[in-house]
């Protein structure tokens, strides 16, 4: 009783499964890398917007403080002694 080797032998099926399972982690890794890059870019954009708004708030507070000090200085000079 001789056996005929066929293309659907267990060895051939195992090798095709291995190539499929080897590609899956690489594809997953590529998708995760792309997601991380996208999130990193979005975070950098939001971070720069926050810093710009904080700088603007700081500038406005400095102007307000200067205006209050000059107003207090004028009131001090105008008050009778």
Automatic annotation (TrEMBL):
Please note every region of biased composition (Low complexity).
1-19
Which superkingdom is the protein from? Eukaryota
Look up the coiled coil feature and give its residue ranges.
Answer: 47-74
Note one Pfam family from the annotation: HSBP1
Classification via InterPro entries:
HS1-bd (IPR009643)
Location of region: Disordered: 1-25
Entry GO MF terms: transcription corepressor activity
What UniProt keywords are attached to this protein's entry? Answer: Coiled coil, Stress response
State the Gene Ontology BP annotations: cellular heat acclimation
Q: Looking at the UniProt record for this protein, which Gene Ontology cellular component terms does it annotate, in alphabetical order?
A: cytosol; nucleus
What's this protein's family per the entry? Belongs to the HSBP1 family.
Task: Note the PANTHER family from the entry.
Answer: HEAT SHOCK FACTOR BINDING PROTEIN 1
Record protein name field: Heat shock factor-binding protein
> Native species of this protein?
Marssonina brunnea f. sp. multigermtubi (strain MB_m1)
